[in-house]
Amino acid sequence: MDGTFNENDISHIVAADKAHVWHHLSQHKPYETSDPRIIVEGKGMRVWDQNGKEHLDAVSGGVWTVNVGYGRESIANAVRDQLLKVNYFAGSAGSIPGSVFAEKLIGKMPGLSRVYYLNTGSEANEKAFKMVRQIAHKKFGGTKHKILYRDRDYHGTTITCLSAGGQDERNLQYGPFTPGFVRVPHCLEYRKHEQDGAPVENYGEWAAEQIEQVVLREGPDTVGALCLEPVTAGGGVITPPEGYWQKVQEICDRYGILLHIDEVVCGIGRTGTWFGYQHYGVKPDMVTMAKGVASGYAAIACLVTTEEVFNLFKSDPTDKLDHFRDISTFGGCITGPVAALENMRIIEDEGLLDNCNAMGARMMDNLNAIKDKHAIVGDARGKGLFCGLELVKDRESKEPVEEAKVAAVVAECAAQGVLIGAANRSVPGYNNYLCFAPSLIATASDIDQITGTVDSALTKVFG
């Protein structure tokens, strides 16, 4: 790697980081005796740390974001050119890139028509919740205000997003939470007996019917929206069972419930289609997205709605309170849509959706081979290039392995030069799975290196 700092510079950088930077999701006590990892360069699917060590990144920037890989000069150039032309104007006005990207994005989302720009997935979901609440007041006298969310799903870091969060360890110490959010059961078929105590036929339909039971318990006239991930991400890489989404759609239609699909992780190709919900034939009213929209080259998130939802906020302009009274300051950064446009062009021109499906199939084949080899692996699951392994002490009882053992596998993979993900501090008792989300540019050799390293790490940690 061509280093951009000499050794003394790096020493200073590390010291400044340890003295002044507050890292995300990190306990800093260990940094009193060890150094944090600092990423100094990335190219393709590989990154280099402050020590010059090369890592194959199997989690697309640590949080499933860099879908088209590192070092994309065309995106950097597009962003630079836009910064020199006009970098920012409040979202109350339009921009050329904002208009063009909105049109291109809507072209990938039949049935939807409006794009609201923001800059984080948490913010996008928060705005969607605000829309539901305002619709409840405008149309239903305030009664149809409750928002259902699913056990194990995650929708962001704000207090209200945590109120819709199905990962209880993430929520600890941050209450009290926003009222009006109601949990529904998860749809993890591997764990279905823990919900029912006996085998269930047509599990997908059964799991969706549990949502209907919550609707009936709460009262359909009080439930305004149902917020779900198409594939549960951080809660276990849970792919929905057959028949689940079709039944969910029927329930929403029957009771007049807005279907809000959180595509912050799955959107823009991660599962092999532009959006995860498109695998299942459902028709959302609201879709939120962030991470892969610009592959991390600029901050951008989007809340996309149907024209029907949009029209609920159109009325007599003399009524000062009837429109959606909201702003996202940095949703006005024009480089977001610019980076998103070039990101989408790359995915189209390089055939990355097809590659995602092909390499995703290869990864699942390799993970299933690992499952056959290692009794510690209870389940392998995934969609496209978003896959996971659930680790258990015993396949019969499905007792989860300890979180520390999962962390040891991640650490061993890193020691061998491959960065993978894992559950931690999320679902009490079930932080027992490994997560893989390599960039959509992954090659067969990349996939084989990732899974070969996982195989080796499992052998070293568990024997």
UniProtKB/TrEMBL annotation:
Its cofactor is pyridoxal 5'-phosphate. The keyword Cell cycle does not apply. The keyword Nuclease does not apply. It comes from the Bacteria. GO terms for molecular function: pyridoxal phosphate binding; transaminase activity. Belongs to the class-III pyridoxal-phosphate-dependent aminotransferase family. This is Aspartate aminotransferase family protein.
